[in-house]
């Protein structure tokens, strides 16, 4: 039943810009008509008594990435609460990031406990007789791009007036509960399937790393004679290999700063940050084959081999190999070194270019480098294909989730009959839904 949802029997004009029509029994209300809307505040950082030993939960814009917020990672004191204009957030409120890095702005989350927040979060406290908080969260998730589009420039932030004027389709409250129960049921199945495919990707990645590490540290010659390496991360290497610091076989330099509004979804030149493709720009900083190492954040140390004309941002270390060095072998060597272990502990972990370029590595003759690179490519080709397929399936499932939520919370699909037939056991086998999700993943 869930796998084959139908439209509602009758519709009417929504009189809202975002919606052409809604089910006949639904209404559209501006958020300010059924929500208390407010923002938080930040106590002075210069006053230790506002922070040290605080027990008042305090949220920031980055917390919306958790979707459901049940705990706080930061606290303020009672004095800090009284000295600022922040307010208590009632459990069951939805918060939206008014500003934030990357994709955070416009993201929504449900707060499950009493908390306060800073000025970068807008709070919508719905009247429970009119709107179920989980329904509201699903709706705001479905309108993420539209909410971000309320500001003309990506550098600008949202404000409370934007949130107050958001039109929200409002089904009868009993129907909202049906919608939430069905979406929660399907959502859990989608997440379960995505997690299984992510585990597969991770297992394949670990298998590839094992293959790569063995090849770049021991070579392909089983009869090679090994000698102590004097390299901190290696006990021994083939005796005919030389040792060098990375700066002796490659040039390394951080990329160039680019503003977020200069990065577009489409364009002539790809823009690469520390974790891969970020978008496109109208200009480029490099041309030809290069290796990029992520230098900031929890994923610093990521290694990507790129080519052509591209822009490398300041979040990446750009590596250009010297003569007598194969670039594919070099990229494999950097993967085997697990560069993340050299990140400097801080609020924002990062790699020092000087530290990386001074690390010692084993260097085979050029012909052997090329042979290692070719052997690794052949040995990991099967895992690469399975990984690509799994990642594509994950992407399709996430797209389906977004589309399904949007269709349900805007009334394009009727879930009332499906809600009446949900199994009592949420973990019970549902072959029809499982088959439908596998079809989605298969494209």
Structure description:
The chain has 443 residues and is α+β, with helices and mostly antiparallel strands. It has 3 domains: 1-14 and 176-237 and 380-443, no CATH class; 27-170, Adenine-n6-DNA-methyltransferase TaqI, Chain A, domain 2 (Alpha-Beta Complex); 242-363, Adenine-n6-DNA-methyltransferase TaqI, Chain A, domain 2, CATH 3.90.220.20. 34% of the residues lie in helices and 24% in strands. It has 11 helices and 24 strands. Strands 4-11-8-9-6 form a 5-stranded mixed beta sheet. A 4-stranded antiparallel beta sheet has the order 16-23-20-21, covered by helices on one side. Strand 1 (11-16) and strand 2 form a beta hairpin. Helix 3 (133-142) packs across helix 9 and helix 6 packs across helix 7. The longest helix is centred in the middle third of the chain and has 46 residues, at 173-218. The protein is globular and about 80 Å long. 33% of the residues are buried.
């Amino acid at each position: 039943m869930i796998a084959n949802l139908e439209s509602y029997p009758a519709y009417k004009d929504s009189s809202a810009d975002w919606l052409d029509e809604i089910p006949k029994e639904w209404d559209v209300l501006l958020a300010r008509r059924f929500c208390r809307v407010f923002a938080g505040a930040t106590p002075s950082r210069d006053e230790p008594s506002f922070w040290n030993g605080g027990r008042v939960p305090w949220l920031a814009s980055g917390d919306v990435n958790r979707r459901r917020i049940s705990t706080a990672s930061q606290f303020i004191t009672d004095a800090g609460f009284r000295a600022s204009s922040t307010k208590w957030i009632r459990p069951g409120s939805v918060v939206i990031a008014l500003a934030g890095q990357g994709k955070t702005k416009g993201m929504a989350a449900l707060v499950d406990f009493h908390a306060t927040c800073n000025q970068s979060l807008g709070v919508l406290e719905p009247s429970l007789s009119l709107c179920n908080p989980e329904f509201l969260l699903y709706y705001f998730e479905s309108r993420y791009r539209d909410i971000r589009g309320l500001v003309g420039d990506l550098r600008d932030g949202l404000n409370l007036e934007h949130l107050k004027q958001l039109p929200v389709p409002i089904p009868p409250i009993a129907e909202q509960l049906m919608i939430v129960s069905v979406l929660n049921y399907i959502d859990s199945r989608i997440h379960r399937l995505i997690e299984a495919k992510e585990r597969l990707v991770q297992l394949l990645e670990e298998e590839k790393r094992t293959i790569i590490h063995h090849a770049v540290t021991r070579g392909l010659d089983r009869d090679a004679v090994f000698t102590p390496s004097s390299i901190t991360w290696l006990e021994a290497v083939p005796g005919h290999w030389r040792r060098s610091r990375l700066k002796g076989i490659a040039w390394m330099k951080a990329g160039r700063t680019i503003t977020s509004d200069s990065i577009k979804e489409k364009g002539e030149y790809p823009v690469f940050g520390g974790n891969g493709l970020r978008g496109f720009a109208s200009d480029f900083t490099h041309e030809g084959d290069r290796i990029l190492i992520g230098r900031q954040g929890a994923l610093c140390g990521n290694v990507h081999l790129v080519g052509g004309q591209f822009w490398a941002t300041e979040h990446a270390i750009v590596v250009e190999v010297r003569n007598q060095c194969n670039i594919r072998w070099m990229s494999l060597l950097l993967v085997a070194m697990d560069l993340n272990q050299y990140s400097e502990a801080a609020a924002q972990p990062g790699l020092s270019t000087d530290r990386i370029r001074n690390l010692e590595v084993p260097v085979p003759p050029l012909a052997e480098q090329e042979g290692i690179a070719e052997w690794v490519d052949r040995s990991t080709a099967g895992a690469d294909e399975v990984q690509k397929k799994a990642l594509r399936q994950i992407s399709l499932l996430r797209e389906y989730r977004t589309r399904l939520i949007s269709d349900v919370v805007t009334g394009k699909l009727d879930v009332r009959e499906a809600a009446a037939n949900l199994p009592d056991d949420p973990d019970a086998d549902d072959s029809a839904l499982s088959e439908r999700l596998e079809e989605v993943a298969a494209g």
